[in-house]
Amino acid sequence: MKHNLLLVEDEALVREIVTDYFENEQWTIYEAETGVLALDLFERHSIDLVILDIMLPELDGWTVCKQIRKSSDVPIIMLTAKGEDDDKVLGYELGADDYVTKPFSPRVLVAQAKALLKRAEGRISGEEFLLQFGSLELNTKSYSVTIAGADIDLSPKEYDLLIYLVRNKGIVLSRDTILNAVWGFDYFGDIRTVDTHIKKLRAKLGNESERIVTVIRAGYRFEAEK
């Protein structure tokens, strides 16, 4: 199955190299060297994944990410020369799903894109795929969450977080444990990222948000019964 990638990067050489690697994997690439062009291409095409540089002319990557998140939960990988933790935290808070610091391996970037897209498409095998708690229902095959039959729009990272909490229902999970499980051991961001995503997740779950319990000085626990 072919996928459409929006590559937003102002350096022509980087675009050329990344494009070559993704085209070898049968992806269709839409290239943008500015933030304005990126948003235009995103509106005009069906995009499956975005690789987004932060330092861009006209509109920076933060602004582009924020604009995309207003209408879409498409997976977004932020691409930047900066490596500060604050930049990573900001990216995740704006809705980015992964973060790659230059210089990077194009092969690894392709692998990260595939893994992220696979999670976003809900291709989970060997697991119970329909999970229900009160009016909250999760379908891991269709990557969907509903409350009382109404669809709830979650970003891929919010979905991963909810699934992790659900799979460990009744267990108190520390912020560090959640960060490592959901964001990965190679993520060096602040544990505030967990709190931020929990807050957003609760806001979207409405009455069912009470299932995500804060355990003071310990972390969070998902309650199957309430």
How are the SSEs placed, and which strands pair?
Elements: E1 4-8, H1 12-23, E2 28-32, H2 35-44, E3 49-53, H3 61-69, E4 76-80, H4 85-93, E5 98-101, H5 106-120, E6 130-133, E7 136-139, E8 144-147, E9 150-151, H6 156-167, H7 175-183, H8 192-205, E10 212-215, E11 219-222
Parallel strand pairs: 1-2, 1-3, 3-4, 4-5
Antiparallel strand pairs: 6-7, 7-8, 8-9, 10-11
Commentary on this structure:
- With 226 residues, the protein is α/β, with parallel strands linked by helices.
- The chain has eight helices and eleven strands.
- The strands form three sheets. A five-stranded parallel beta sheet has the order 2-1-3-4-5, with helices on both faces. Strands 6-7-8-9 form a four-stranded antiparallel beta sheet, with no helix packed on it.
- Strand 10 and strand 11 form a beta hairpin.
- It is globular and about 55 Å long.
- About 2% of the residues have low confidence.
Tell me briefly what this model is.
This protein has 8 helices and 11 strands. By secondary structure, the protein is α/β, with parallel strands linked by helices. The protein is globular.
**Class derived from helix and strand content:** alpha/beta
Give the low-pLDDT segments.
123-127
Instruction: Please trace the helix and strand order, writing H or E for each element.
Output: EHEHEHEHEHEEEEHHHEE
Per DSSP E runs of 2 or more residues, the count of β-strands stands at 11
What coarse outline follows from CA principal-axis ratios? Answer: globular
Percent of residues in beta strands?
15-25%
